[in-house]
Each structure stands twice: as structure tokens, then as C-alpha cells.
Design a protein that fits this description.
Structural class: alpha+beta
Number of helices: 3
Strand order of the largest sheet: 2-1-3-4
Helix content: 25-40%
Number of strands: 4
Shape: elongated
Strand content: 15-25%
Amino acid sequence: MSVHYQRFDNQEYRIRQLELGQFEVATWYSSPYPDEYARLPKIYLCEFCLKYMKTATILRRHVVRELPYRKKVLK
């Protein structure tokens, strides 16, 4: 009798890549993200606050809104 590879539910919906700033990182393991994010092949992380987003457009809008707050902190 042969042993078949058993696929777990959390492996089926695993984010394959993370984009953090200018870096793209391939993932090795699954992480507990909400289902709407876990089904995406790639998510985008803000490099300053580590908030995760679905698209690069949402990330760009987030960074523009956060820019004044970061400038105050850097001064």
C-alpha cells in the first residue's frame, strides 16, 4: 500500500510572496492571516508599520497618508 501526501487546509491557502519595501520574499510556511488575505498569492507590507495590504495601489495610498507622521518622528 502506498502512502499519499496529505495536504492540510492551511497549506492550500498559503501566501507565496511578501513584498516589503523594495524586497520580495518567498515564504516557506503558512501564517495565520485572515482568509481574504491568505488566498492571495502575494501580499504587500508597509515597511514602517508592517500593516499588510492586498494590492500595491493600496500600499502606495497608505504610504502617502503616513508620510507626514513619519517626517515628524524623524525630526
